[in-house]
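In practice, a research group might receive sequence data for several interacting partners and want a quick structural hypothesis before committing to experiments. The following worked case mirrors that situation: the sequences arrive first, and a predicted assembly follows.
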Amino acid sequence: MTLLETYKLLHVLAAIVWVGGGILTLVFTWRALGTDREHRLGLARDTEFLANRVFAPAAMVALLFGILMVLEVDAYEFTDTWIVIGFTGLVLSTILGMAYYPPQSKRLITEITEIDPKAEGRLATIAKVSTIDMGILVVVVWAMVAKPGL
Amino acid sequence: MFETLKLIHVLAAIIWVGGSIMAQLFALRLTAAAPAHRLGFARDLRFAASRIFVPSAIVLLGAGIWMVADSPGFAFGDPFVVIGLVAVGGSLATAIGYLIPNIGRAIELMTSGRGPEAGAVIRKVALAARAVIVILLVAVWAMVVKPGG
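A structural hypothesis for the assembly, expressed as tokens:
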């Protein structure tokens, strides 16, 4: 395997874990809206635990090896449309991942534990935001595959 | 046309492989979980496996075959195509023939109060699912590196 192939494989694997894992978590989140309290609480705790340990590192690995690939390939520039789309999407999703989900997840867990009726609304909002987040990441995947502007 | 097929193929792979890895990570957290959460997770997993993973695998396979048939640069005898077809075919058959029915069996055992028996079934399912993930990761490697391609 060449250096570029290694970078590409690690970039792709990180993206698979991040986006694919995110989509599964989104499906679980939507399904949690109609489920019992104990499962919802367990799912909220599991998601909070895994988000910090899986999504954030996967995003960083995808970003790092994406940058290394751009540096390695002469035909790629940081100003290429598809790379700009990729960076923008990744940054937006990372901001959501760092600034939105952690506090919302903590509040959700507290509300479910205290049997607060606000939990249902908060869970629905998180599900909607996650749907937009995944939409952004799907656009990034499209940009990486179709490479518009290249 | 080729780009559209490639996008569909890649998205299906992301959903199937990434989702399967994530499902395993969720499952690892179940050891100390409340019974209601275990049952809820098993139901969510059956839904994901039968309504998301299997359709994604079929779409992935269809788009992949179409790409090979459509592109003069690829042939069904290329090593990376053979690896992909064997890995995806084998994983799909395992999911339909073993994983999904046994998740259903575990749910039935849990709902009838036979938790320990359900746990034994789930442990076997988790082991088989991990083997499938390893096979799928080999397929991802083959698609990226294209050995012999």
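Before designing any experiment, note the following. Chain A has a mean pLDDT of 92. Residues 37-72 of chain A form the longest helix (36 residues).
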